[in-house]
Write a structure and sequence with these properties.
Number of helices: 5
Largest sheet: 2 strands, antiparallel
Strand order of the largest sheet: 1-2
Strand content: under 5%
CATH architecture: Up-down Bundle
Helix content: 55-70%
Number of strands: 2
Distance between the termini: 12 Å
Shape: elongated
Order of helices and strands: HHHEEHH
Radius of gyration: 20 Å
Number of domains: 1
Structural class: mainly alpha
Length: 196
């Protein structure tokens, strides 16, 4: 049985990873940018976030319809459980982060007069019912989902570190873990796998 992930799963994994890294970088650098550069950076952050939401939907649909490769039988039970919990929490954040950002953006007080353009190509709609809330309620939604977006980002950092750290640990243990998610030739078929 093949240990390597499918080409589609690998492509979606790395596209989402690259998008998350880019969005985190933008969020960290725009407070240090010149005033005229802040709005383009925020707009790019929003565009990447919406794109990540689409990619996350595709990835989840692919995951449901294509069984991932089994983990090596040498993994301890706690390692397998930790990997599964980390993966599903990352999936949850792949939806929570862009959705909370979209809701927050839709509740922005000037959203009606400041349209959002996806990578400058076409206008991306705000969420209508939120856009038309009474001002006080809209402000509360903006602040609440803004806080959620911020707190979720810290959880994302922790899970990202756990995910990368786990992959590197198994790679250094000789399990060739990174090769399961790398493009190229098929993975090592000789490793005994754990049934799922």
């Amino acid at each position: 049985m093949e240990r390597k992930y499918s080409g589609v799963a690998i492509l979606l994994h790395w596209l989402i990873a690259a998008g998350i890294v880019a969005n985190v970088a933008l969020a960290w650098i725009w407070p240090r940018l010149a005033d005229e550069q802040v709005r383009p950076a925020i707009d790019t952050h929003k565009s990447i976030g919406i794109t990540l939401l689409g990619l996350a939907i595709m990835r989840l649909l692919w995951r449901w319809s294509h069984r991932p490769p089994a983990m090596p039988a040498s993994y301890r039970n706690w390692e397998v459980r930790t990997a599964h919990v980390t993966h599903w929490l990352l999936y949850a954040l792949m939806f929570a982060m862009p959705l909370s950002g979209w809701i927050m953006d839709s509740a922005y007080k000037d959203a009606a007069t400041h349209p959002m353009f996806l990578f400058g190509l076409f206008e991306w709609p705000r969420i209508g019912p939120i856009l038309h809330l009474p001002p006080a309620m809209r402000d509360a939604v903006h602040d609440g989902f803004g806080a959620m977006h911020s707190y979720a980002s810290w959880l994302l950092y922790a899970l990202f570190a756990l995910h990368v750290g786990g992959a590197l640990k198994h790679e250094f243990d000789g399990h060739r873990e990174l090769r399961r998610m790398m493009p190229g030739r098929a993975g090592d078929r000789s490793v005994k796998i754990r049934s799922q």
